[in-house]
Structures are given as structure tokens and as C-alpha cells.
Amino acid sequence: MLTYERRCAEIIHQTSLLVSSLDGADLGVQVPSTPDWTLNQLVRHVGLAHRWADMMIRERVAEIPYDRNQAQELDSYVGEKASEVVPWLVEGAASLSEALSEVDPDEMIAVLGGHPGPRVWSRRMTHETVLHRWDVANALGVPFELDPEVARDTLIEWTDLALPFAFYRWPEQTAPLVGPGRTVHLHATDADAELVIDLTDSRPVVRHSHEKAAVAVRGPVVELALAVYRRRPVEGLEVFGDAELLDLLLDRVRF
């Protein structure tokens, strides 16, 4: 996985790549992968998420103040130009990276799932930015490229965070995934990433191994990461076995 220092740097780097796509763009266009938002609102969402994490780290909050997260309150952001929002977004990413760099990665602040907040939020904000950078590129029809090392971390974060979160948050929706022999193998063909998701019990268990599973999906690590985060269909990837189980997993695990 990426080091803590690399994630702090990637928050800035991925934000820089995101804003490079916005020069001259119409921020009023709808974003297909987040259809309730325009580009204007998506950019504000990313920046507000950065600022929320920044606040938690700088104030060293013990518990996560969800009521102070404004990243979903986007109705008022209309008619802005890239020249207005780009400096604001870049400034917020730099501030968050700085805040994270100034604390002990294992300090128990803004704890999530029993894990130290600085490590969790450095990772979450890295991949929040990665995925929304893809949303921007897709909406504007411009190329999207991602370092396979970063994509590997994106994929593993999905199994570490999004997967258990879905089972905790939506037990009725995820219950149909559980059953004897129900296992899913994610296999990157261009990176050291093989993950087996064991769904045979009430909570998913993830193993980093090569095992026979009920269904396996193989492909480049960037494409696997985009698939699990519902940014691209599995068509075009190699799928072996119970494709319906894979489709159900990707449908029910939302984040």
C-alpha cells in the first residue's frame, strides 16, 4: 500500500491533475457518474470534503463530527467559473496535506472504525480525489490515467472500507450476498493485487491471496478499481464463474 507520506503528497497531486482538466470547461454540465451534480457542484464537493478532513485533523477532534461535513450541501453552487473554484480547491488540498504532515499518523484523532484518523483520512481523501478526478474527466471526455500503485491502493481501500461499511450501514441490502461458497476473487493483471472476498459469513472477510472462488474478475488494476467503485461496467474485464454474484456485489456495495 502507499505510504502515509505518499498519500499526503497524492492529495495535492491528484487535485492538480483534476483542475488541469477544468481550464475553459463549462462547469454547468451534468456529471454522468454523479447525475445530481454539475461539475461546479462536484468540484465544491471535493473541496468541502478536503476542508472537513482538514478541520478534524487540525482541531484534533476525538469523534468524527458528521454534522460539520458540508460536502453534500451543494444546491447553492451554481454559475461559478473555473477561475473562481480552482484556486479554492488547490488551496484546500494543500492545507489538508500540510495538516496531515504535521501530526503523528497513528494519533487517535477523528478515529474511524477503531483506526487512527490521520491514516484513514489521508487515504480516504486521496481516493476521494482520484475517483472524482475520473468523474471530471469522464464528464468532459478527456483522457484519464492513474499510476498503478495508486490504483492498487484505491482497490484495496474499497475492500478495507467501502465493503465493511456497506454491510454495517445496509444489512438488509447486503444480506443476499451471504451464503455457502460465496467468494469473489479480484485479480489485477498488472500489479501485485489479488484479493479474495469471503462472503460465507455475516460479515465479509478479505484475504490477500490467490484462491479459487465462486467468481473471479481479472483486468488492469486501474480498471478493477473503477469497476468496484461503479465508475465502469465489468464488461471488457475477464469474468469467470458466477457473474451474477459479482454483479450483485457491485450493486449492493455502495459508498
TrEMBL record:
Pfam families: MDMPI_C (PF07398), MDMPI_N (PF11716)
Organism from which the protein derives: Lentzea rhizosphaerae
Keyword flag Cytoplasm: no
GO molecular function: isomerase activity
Mycothiol-dependent maleylpyruvate isomerase metal-binding domain segment(s): 9-137
Annotated protein name in UniProt: Maleylpyruvate isomerase family mycothiol-dependent enzyme
Keywords per UniProt: Isomerase
Highest taxon of the lineage: Bacteria
Domain MDMPI C-terminal: 162-247
